[in-house]
Amino acid sequence: MDDETLFPIGVLAARTGLTVKAIRFYADKGIVPATCHSPAGHRLYDTHALARLELVRTLRDLDIDLATVRRILSRETSLSEVAAAHADALDVRIRTLRLRRAVLRAVAQRESNPQEMDLMHKLVNLSEAERHRLVHDFVDDTFGTADAAPAVVELLRSSMPDLPADPTTGQVAAWMELVELVQDEDFRAAVRRMAEYQAKERAAGDDTGLHHELTEAVREAVGRALATGIEPDSDSAVPVVDLLTARYAETFGRADDSELRSWILERLVVADDSRVTRYWQLVSTINGWAPLPDLGPVFAWFGRALRASLRHR
């Protein structure tokens, strides 16, 4: 073999960035043995060994264990398979680190105590399935015992909170608050009463669908009334109420009379819980959706206006 193609271990160390000790270790383990030895017994390496050592250094820098490095060099497994597996593992580590960063930022912003930080860390590190289970348990407990509106149940189950891979501080804080909310027994009892009311309505043959178009109609009409300063018990509120009750009558196939207005008011009272709005605001924050408007003032105005209209009938 031409001496010009051989490198002593010191030169090899300079070329690869590995220490002499590391190169000897890899040789002793049979991972990259010396190509040959000089007459004085010194290890010599050819260009092929140089390339193998450079590959070993790269693989070790990527935290690939020695056993796997050995299999790659002996071609017992392909580099592409190992690279794909380790890329997947790195994805998990990166997500974990991002979550930890978000937790630490949230802790700093909220001035959390150690107990809250520990709970926050545990909650954000749950798997996606485990996070979904928390919400499914909430839906099962509140709607599972009543023949409630299927559309509402489906909306709750399909609108799962999903923390992104790199959550913001606000998303971590929202996730914490959401978990506290769905585990609050008083809130669960309130939602359970809503489900029971919907079940009673369904049993009576009344439509308990979502009717987003009605919600939008109320939001627009009452929003204009609020913007112009119309009081709900004033004469100026009468046309607004008449417009909306006519829409309800058309949607539900009922007469626009006092009975309908009492029924609408009853529905508003049952659904009047700011925590429901907060639930959807938190889900929207976690999922990165557009912020949801707070319709509490809108429906509060509509409820007062309905009561006033019933008093005058």
Overall description:
The protein has three domains: 3-77, Multidrug-efflux Transporter Regulator, Chain: A, Domain 2 (Orthogonal Bundle), CATH 1.10.1660.10; 92-186, no CATH class; 211-311, no CATH class. The chain has 15 helices and three strands. The chain has helices at residues 9-16, 20-28, 47-61, 66-73, 79-110, 114-124, 128-143, 150-158, 169-182, 185-203, 212-227, 238-252, 258-270, 274-287, 296-311, and strands spanning 7-8, 36-37, 43-45. Strands 1-3-2 form a three-stranded antiparallel β-sheet. Helix 11 runs antiparallel to helix 12 and helix 11 (212-227) crosses helix 15 (296-311). The longest helix has 32 residues, at 79-110. The model has no long low-confidence stretch (mean pLDDT 86).
